[in-house]
Design goal:
Layout: H1 2-26, E1 31-40, H2 44-52, E2 64-73, E3 76-83, E4 86-96, E5 100-105, E6 111-122, E7 125-136, H3 139-149, H4 153-165, E8 172-173
Antiparallel strand pairs: 1-7, 1-8, 2-3, 3-4, 4-5, 5-6, 6-7
Length: 174
């Protein structure tokens, strides 16, 4: 009997934790904005080339297993990324070389949004600012993405992988 009480107690504790996370997530806004910037010792054109060469991204993007190109939409690239989190479809919605690129999620998932890539010259190279305008529909995952994973974790991986692609140490800031 004692073992059953222990198991039942543990089950109630786990249900309580999930309920607390769910309620806390409901108090968080569905939409969010986050931004990170990397500095690189290469000219903006080189950063732009890496951003727009979709087929080469698996060679430098951390956690990106493969990319599959899909037919263009409105003359702009669409692709599927296979990551450790699963497959997600992205479509490019704005191209302003070599300054601004906007890509948005086109997958039907309980989260999504856009990444805006702003490339700018710097005295000793260039900077890349990634701004995410995203949403998380599910309150449980909203809490996890805000407090456990963090809104900027994927941006940090992206900027780090790009620095390594250029043979540099990552220089990332808000």
């Amino acid at each position: 009997m004692t073992a059953w009480k222990w198991v039942l107690g543990l089950l109630f504790v786990l249900i309580g934790i999930v309920a607390i996370i769910w309620v806390a997530g409901m108090f968080l806004p569905r939409d969010h904005m986050a931004s990170r910037m990397g500095h690189y010792q290469v000219p903006p054109e080189k950063v732009w080339a890496a951003l727009t060469d979709i087929d080469a991204m698996p060679s430098w993007r951390i956690g990106l297993k493969s990319v599959t190109r899909l037919p263009d939409k409105n003359g702009l690239p669409v692709h599927v990324e296979d990551t450790s989190a699963g497959k997600m479809t992205f479509e490019t919605t704005l191209v302003d070389p070599p300054r601004r690129l906007v890509r948005g999620m086109a997958s039907d998932l309980p989260f999504g949004g856009t990444w805006t890539f702003d490339v700018a010259p710097a005295p000793d190279g260039s900077t890349l600012r990634i701004t995410e305008n995203g949403y998380v529909s599910n309150p449980f995952f909203r809490f996890i993405s805000r407090y456990v994973i963090g809104y900027t974790s994927e941006m940090n991986k992206y900027l780090t992988g790009l620095a390594q692609h250029f043979g540099e140490k990552p220089q990332i800031r808000d």
